[in-house]
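idk why but the lab printer keeps eating my pages so im just putting this in chat instead. protein + nicotinamide-adenine-dinucleotide:
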Amino acid sequence: MIPDTVVETGPPAGAGGDACTTPKKSAGAYATALLDTERQRPVGVPGAAPRPVRSVGVVGAGLMASQLAMVFARQLGLPVLITDLSQAKVDGALAWITAHLQKLVSRGELNETAARELGSLIRGTVDKREYANCDVVIEAVFEELNVKRAVFAELEPLLRADALLLTNTSSLSVTAMGHGLAHPERVVGLHFFNPVAVLPLVEIIRTGNSDDVSLATACSLARLLGKTAVLVADTPGFAVNRILTRLFCELLQLIDNGADIELADHALDPLGLPMTPLTLLGFIGPAVQLHICETMHAAYPDRFYVSTSLAAIADARLRGYLDKSGTVLPEAAALLPAADVDSDADAIKIRILDALAEEVGLMLAEKVVSGPADIDLCMLLGANYPRHLGGLTPLLDQSGASRRVWGKDFHPGSGFAD
Ligand SMILES: NC(=O)c1ccc[n+]([C@@H]2O[C@H](COP(=O)([O-])OP(=O)(O)OC[C@H]3O[C@@H](n4cnc5c(N)ncnc54)[C@H](O)[C@@H]3O)[C@@H](O)[C@H]2O)c1
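predcted complex ->
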C-alpha cells in the first residue's frame, strides 16, 4: 500500500482544460505553490555549515562535463579544471565551450569581455594531479560502475582531505562508488539533467556514509547554481529516471508485442506532455536509455523490461525510432512485428498511467523521496512536465490511476480526482 502522506493541496479553482484528459485547474495552482515554496528549501538538508567552494574540478570532457564546466564558471564565477583520458577529448570540450560562449555573445546574452573572462576560468588537462587544490570535484565519466570507482580511487590520494567528491551518475549506486575509499563520507551524488543550463532540477543523493558537511556543501552548491534540489535516496534511477524509464518500458513492451508504434507513441498526447515518449527517447539516445533500462531491470526485473527493439536500434546506431520530424524511421519499423490493427490508444494510456501510479507508490513506500510533492517537483523541473498537470501525482489521482492501483489517491481530499 502507498503510505499515508502529508497532503499538499492547491486552492480550489475552476476546472481547466479537457476534464476527461487533464486534471482540474487546482493542479496548476498546486504546482505553482510547490515551485514557489519548495524551491528554496529542500526537505532533509542538514543544519551543518557548508564548506566554502573556491574552485571546481570536472572529470570527463564529454556531453555533461562540458556543460557542467560552463555552468559552474558562469553561475559561480569559479575557476574550473576539466580532464579526460586524451588531450584530444579535452581540446574538444574546450572548443565546444568557446563556441558556446560565442553563441551567447551573438545572441546578446553576454558581451565579448564577459565571454573572454568566462572562457579564461575554464582550463583543461589530462593530468588529474592538478585537482589537488580543488574544493569540489565532480565526475561525469561513462555510466559504468567500474569506471567510476576507478576514477574515484585514482582521485582520492590526489585530493585534499576535505575536498568534496561528487558524481553525476544517472542511475548507479553512489554508495557502491564509495566502496573501498578511505573517505566515503565525502561522496555525494549531484545528478544534473541535460541540458544542464536549462533544466532547473538537481537530484542530491546521500549515501549511508555521506556526512552532514558534505551533504550541506552539495546542497549549497546546487542553490548557488540556481538549481532546485530534491534529496533522493540512493536507489536505482533515483526519481526522474526511474519514472521515465518505467514509462519507456511499458511503451516499448507494447510496441515489441505488436502495438501500432505511432498510435502508441501518441497515446499520451491528450495529457499535454512536452513531447512524445519516442521523441524524448531520441534526445536521450537509444544506447544511453538501453543502458538505464538494463540497470533498472537488474534492480526490479518484474517491472522494468529490456526492449528487444531498443537493443536492436542501439546496436544499429540509429538515432531512435523516429526521424527529426517525428516520423517512424523505416529502419526502426523493419525491426518491429506487424502492427496490431486492434491497438487502442485509450487502453495504452491507462496502462501507462497505472504503471506510473504503481511505480510512484512503491517509491513513496521505499522513501525514495520525502513525499508526493518531491515526485512532482522532480517531474516539473527535471522532465519539464507541465504545470497544469501539477507534475505527476495530481494527474495520477485525476485519471483514476492511483485508485485503480492502490485503492486511494496520493492527495486524498484535494479535489484532483473529483
Ligand atoms: N547524457 C545525458 O543526458 C546525461 C544526463 C544526466 C547525467 N548523465 C550522466 O553523466 C555522466 C556522463 O555522461 P555523458 O553523456 O556526458 O558521457 P560522455 O560519453 O559524453 O562523456 C564521458 C567522458 O568521460 C571520459 N572518461 C572516461 N573515463 C575517464 C577517466 N578515467 N578519466 C577521465 N575521463 C574519462 C570519456 O573519454 C568521455 O569523454 C554519466 O554518468 C551519465 O549517466 C548523462
